[in-house]
Specification:
The protein is built from 15 helices and no strands. The protein is mainly α. It folds into two domains: 79 residues, no CATH class; 247 residues, MetI-like fold, CATH 1.10.3720.10. It holds the Pfam family BPD_transp_1.
């Protein structure tokens, strides 16, 4: 005797509820944001601890940087207490973190101005120089690396490899001095030091701090040409080192892709070399190249000290060098903190661009 079966009823499980699915996605996104914020906070705290420790371990007396070497003991002890150096280290660090969070990086004993205002004045110069160099590096190094990979073992490949080798071998200060001797002293094609000629100093109210952009916005083309004449030599010099690095890495990434099976299949279908390279292979190295460009920009912001010194460029590198020379620890700590914060910002921006360029990272 068989049992009669009625119609089967399907009840939706909680996991199938669209509302629950939206809640789960929202909570997952909130967790990612909270994790990222926590990571940023811990990184900033570590950076603050690093700069504070560096300021205390370097063989420089912050009291003498304020008072000068010829100071009596009573004045020395008073300034020592005013700077808070008589308190325990953990209290000094807590006070330092609190001051930084309020935007107080101290006063420069060298300039007499707040370090934050000094950094706001010198950083745009370094940023402009670094961006000029990176644009040069990408515009030349990327196509050079691709062409070298496509023509592996040929003349252009050997030229690209020589350029990369020279860029990593020749001291940048020597190359800068030679460039000044040839293009300024002998050929008079460019101006020597600074960002502008003395004639133009104080004639333009800065908006962004980037002279090329500010002069273009003001439509002052004479000043624009003068700014170009000053930045072109140090910018191209730094750009050459960017070309060397970017071209070498681009060549390596492209060679790896050109040996993949999908490229062989694309060529078998009759696609031209340009189509294979730009439509297929290049898409798969974009994220890697983005990492290289981000690292290059960060490295130029941090490593333009010698170029700024040779060319008298009034940027962060020269400001930091002067602070080290004068034992001005507020300057040193502020410059290091800004450099670290810029590296973090560049990493965050590049990470966001990863997600845009590569859907697999969503």
């Amino acid at each position: 005797m068989s049992a009669a079966h009625g119609p089967t009823l399907h009840t939706a499980s909680p996991a199938d509820d669209p509302e629950d699915d939206r809640v789960r996605r929202f909570l997952a996104g909130l967790g990612r944001v909270a994790g990222r914020l926590l990571s940023i906070a811990l990184t900033l705290l570590g950076l603050l601890l690093l700069t504070f420790t560096m300021g205390r371990l370097l063989p420089a007396d912050p009291v003498l940087a304020v008072t000068g070497a010829e100071v009596n003991k009573a004045t020395y002890d008073r300034v020592y207490a005013e700077l808070g150096l008589d308190r325990p280290l953990w209290e000094q660090f807590a006070s330092y973190v609190g001051n930084v969070l309020r935007g107080d990086l101290g006063v420069s004993a060298t300039t007499g101005h707040s370090v934050l205002s000094d950094l706001g004045h010198v950083f745009p110069a370094t940023f402009e120089l670094a961006v000029f160099a990176v644009i040069t590096g990408v515009a030349i190094g990327l196509p050079l690396g691709i062409v070298a990979a496509v023509n592996r073992g040929r003349l252009i490949d050997h030229v690209a490899r020589i350029i990369g080798l020279a860029g990593h071998s020749v001291p940048i200060f020597w190359l800068g001095l030679m460039a000044l001797f040839v293009f300024y002293a002998k050929l008079h094609w460019v101006d020597a030091s600074g960002r502008l000629s003395v004639f133009y100093e104080g004639m333009l109210e800065p908006v962004t701090g980037l002279l090329l952009l500010d002069t273009a916005m003001a439509r002052d083309w004479d000043m624009f040409r003068d700014a170009v004449s000053h930045i072109v030599l140090p910018g191209l010099l730094l750009g050459y080192y960017s070309v060397a690095y970017i071209s070498r890495m681009t060549r390596s990434f492209m060679l790896e892709q050109l040996n993949q099976e999908y490229v062989i299949a694309a060529r078998a279908k009759g696609l031209s070399t340009a189509q294979v390279v730009w439509r297929h292979a290049f898409k798969n190295i974009r994220v890697q190249l983005l990492t290289i460009v981000a690292l290059t920009l960060g490295g130029l912001l941090d490593g333009a000290v010698l170029v700024e010194t040779v060319f008298g460029w009034p940027g962060l590198g020269q400001y930091l060098t002067r602070g080290l020379t004068m034992n001005d620890m507020n300057v040193v700590m502020g410059a290091v903190l800004l450099t670290g914060a810029m590296f973090m910002a560049i990493n965050l921006i590049s990470d966001r661009l990863y997600r845009i360029l590569d859907a697999r990272t969503h």
